[in-house]
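User: Structure please.
Assistant: Input sequence and predicted structure:
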Amino acid sequence: MRFDRVKKVFGDKFDKFRDIKILIFGVGGVGSFALDCLYRSGFRNITIVDFDIYDETNLNRQLWSDNNIGKSKISTLLKIYPEISGIEQRATSEWVANFNFDNPDIVIDAIDEVDVKIALAFKFKNKLISSMGSGGKISPIGLKIDSIWKTEADPLARAVRTNLKKSGFNGDFKAVFLPTPRIGEVGGSFMAVTASFGLAICSEVINKISYSN
């Protein structure tokens, strides 16, 4: 059976997976791996939000970019994962604040824009799992999942923390980050790291719904 090996790990907890409502913002180098891991683990009530099309610069790190250059990410992924839903929309801070998202249980932030990350934090608070900077890193060893307030050595996380404080945010949410120096030019990315961020987010989703008090 398809999920036998997953059930051997999680036992009765597996029965929760299908009904958990998950919302994923961004299905690129991090988000595509989070989506794939969740789907292969039995999650089905997933909605993805993205506006982009695949291009050649995606080929080094994004699942399903091969043979789909020029195609919508949302329409492509809805064919690959036929039981999920999609919203083809550029996520702005204003749109996030005003859109009705049907009360998701878990929200995954796999986007880069700081203002949108802030809007997601205010909208979803402790439901949020947010990816910090995965670019310019060459090894996933040392990757951490912790409170956004405990992130370190990550310029994107620092910008998020600063803007949260300026905006008066006093809540908390989990962040995935890698406290190692960046190398190379700005904008560089390596699949070993971006994929590891996505897989770590998938793991944290399961931990959050299965083992947290």
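The domain at 4-210 is CATH 3.40.50.720 (Rossmann fold).
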